[in-house]
Amino acid sequence: MVRSWLPMESIAPMSRPGSGYPRATAGPAMIEGCRAGRRWSNCKTLLIVVLIGLTGNIARGEGNHPLASLLNERLSLMRDVAAYKWQHGLSIEDSEREAVVVARAVAEGRNLGLEPDTTRRMFEAQIDAAKVVQHYWFERWLAGEDLPLVGQLEDDFLEEQLRPRLLHLGKAILNAASSEDRPHKTELIHSLTIEGLDESARAALVDAVLSLRRYPNRLSQILDLGQLRIGTTGDYPPFTFRANEQAPLLGLDIDMAKDLAASLGVEPVFVATSWPALTADLEAGRFDIAMGGVSRTLERQRIGFLSLPYHDGGKTVVAPCAGADRYSSLQAVDQPGVRVIVNPGGTNEQFVDRELSRAQKIPHQDNRTIFAGLLRGDADLMITDRIEGQWQVARHPELCLPMGGNNLTYQEKAYLMPQDSVLKAYVDTWLSLRIAKGEVDALFRRWLDAPIPGEP
Q1: Same domain, yes or no, for 329 and 297?
Q2: What are 384-410's pLDDT values in tens digits?
Q3: For the CA atoms of the chain, what is the radius of gyration?
Q4: Which of 76, 152, 228, 308 could form a disulfide with 55 if both were Cys (CB 3.0 to 4.6 A apart)?
């Protein structure tokens, strides 16, 4: 049987909403079942509740600044980490794991617009402070005081219970430490009250946390780091496409992205995204600009900045030629029994959901193979941007545009960025110059005539 170093009589309901751990109540039945050795599941759940529930509660000081509370909560879990290492004969030092934690933090900090050296220093100081607390408990247990457990913690306790919580707290600390509302140094020092944290480690941690710096704007970050991260779906010819996951990205917006990076004197780095995840990835800071046939919409403008438009068009119908003449109007399309194939998450799906009520929507997850599905008979038609329809019809004689030159909507293409006016001003200037020189039109002509990758 596994026992806590805390008296059973002191255990009460202690799962916390939003803690990331199982909602469990250490009630009398569970405690008695564990004592009697009747149910190991009771003991395991009880142990998790005790270790994490109480340490989290102990860590929170009334009236502390949120940043101090988060730092205290993370450091309070070091007693549990130390208990696991003690029970499993592991060393406190784990340089490989520490390197992973720091690298992950630096990447997350970059997404938040933080200078990487300051993020690295802050997390290295957190790791050093964490090891100081772990050494403190090891020394007490070596001296025979406050032995953590009689039995054994489960092998997955560290990986499945503690580390997810530590990861969540690390992200929260980054957000809190990078905000303008940071506590004064003296206040933060006095708020860090975790047992085992010595004065030297406390001071080093506070200095590192308060030295965290944010770039003044996204353009400054791009120039300093020497990389432009371009979010692109890779599934929307002629703007962005590839034959398979291993093939290189191609398309007119891939060429435009490389040109934009060259104008800045930085390396282009392409970041895979998808239409359903596009805005969430933008808000999370996973790329600096989205390029690849992005439509200008008010919904996207609310969460980011859209560049000047570089192409206008609209939605139209693409269908196998054999039955295309039946779909010459939207009314003819919106009929019972008509199957409309849709790639989820983008403006195509939004249009279908808004305008069609009687036709059947057929979701197709991979936009790269959606026209193959249409040709295979998975659906009767697709509604997409005219330029994509033209590109596909030129390569597949079996497909037609039944509405001829008519569009169902008016639409513009642009590039999507975070709400950073400095970056937007640069992109708009670069784009307007390329448009004026005829370079964008030349790319459209080139890529509309380009062969499909992988086809003869």
Answers
A1: no
A2: 999 989 888 988 999 999 988 689 999
A3: 29
A4: 76
